Amino acid sequence: MEQISKLKELLHTPKRIAIIAHQKPDGDAIGSSLGLYHYLVQLGHRVKVIMPTDYAENLKELPGTSDIAIGTEDIDSAKWEFESSDLIFCLDFNAIHRVNEFGKPIMESPAVKILIDHHLEPEDFADLTFLDSTASSTAEMVFRIIQAMGDDDKINADMAAGLYAGVMTDTGSFRFSSTTPAVHRMVARLLETGINVTKIHEDIYDNYTENRLRFLGHCFSHCLKVLPEYKTAYMVVDRPIFKKYYIKAGDTEGLVNYALSLKNINFGVLITSNDEMVKLSFRSRGSFAANEFAKHFNGGGHFYAAGGKSKESLEEVEKKFLTLLEQYKDQLNFA
Ligand code: 5GP
Ligand code: MN
């Protein structure tokens, strides 16, 4: 593969490398970055992982997280790091606005930019691009790249923990349709390093605060609306509720999936509001394309998981959403 030989060439001599993933990094953004980080360090490079914003506490048990810098905590050193790097790896995003204010220093940096991502509709901003929208996760892509580099024997437990967390979270614990035989073969290889998968699952899924659980309870009792005529369930969650339960970054992760966990529901939606805008999360099943629907809210994403945003008020967004449901009624009504 031509890209792999180019990457080999770039990594042939020791380099200063920065790794960045998208803002509000999720399990795959953090996990794939850490997997790549431990690999590149092993190859003898000087590597710095910088996330544009902070991320959920439950990801902070993964090996290497203590070495991750948060861009917003020291903007100047983060910018300097990008400006002075030889290589910048961009992971789990493909539109430069996803790294907020760090887009500019990255684009202006003389560094060679390497993009590794599995989202649709990529922007063409990198010098070397690894894209596969059919891949389960960026973690899977990093794993494949390491193998294609001929470095399967270098996969150790630290790398494996990050990659496992990435593929686990992006496949909904190995249940989404992206969970191919290749994903399970990868996981088998990762397990050979001796990682403790029970601990990784518990750290990520059984590590929430009491407030977060009560917040979920509040959302289910007071915010959830079920519309059988559209086979849709949705929740509207406004700012005061987040404040009441001291909700932090990552605490709403997975909330939208509960809407889709209902019997006879094909479309699950979460509409939230922060101080700047309204954010929508869409999850679908079967033949209903969440990413098509998301286009009505300046968004996009995957077929079954998409998102969007709006500058209108929460009430206006909900009204628009309900009008759209009526338009999509036939498409939503399948068994
Ligand atoms: P979530 O609902 O977890 O925030 O987002 C699910 C997926 O939808 C993300 O992985 C991303 O691909 C996509 N997505 C979320 N928000 C946006 C958005 O505002 N614009 C676009 N184009 N995609 C989004
Ligand atoms: Mn991902």
Low-confidence stretches: none
- The CATH topology of the largest domain is what? inorganic pyrophosphatase (n-terminal core)
> Overall pLDDT, averaged?
96
Inertia-based shape: globular
Which kinds of small molecule does this entry bind, naming each only once?
Answer: guanosine-5'-monophosphate, manganese (II) ion
Q: Supply the number of helical segments.
A: 14
CATH level 4 superfamily of the largest domain? inorganic pyrophosphatase (n-terminal core)
Helix content: 40-55%
Radius of gyration: 20 Å
- By CATH, the architecture of the largest domain is named Alpha-Beta Complex
Distance between the termini: 43 Å
Please provide the count of β strands. Answer: 12
Kindly name the structural category: alpha/beta
Please write the string of helix (H) and strand (E) elements.
HEHEEHEHEEHHHHHEEHHEEHEEHH
Beta-strand share of residues: 15-25%
Described by strand count, sense and barrel closure, the largest sheet is:
6 strands, parallel
Supply the CATH class of the largest domain: Alpha Beta
Q: Widest sheet: strand order?
A: 3-2-1-4-5-6
List the domain count as a whole number. 2
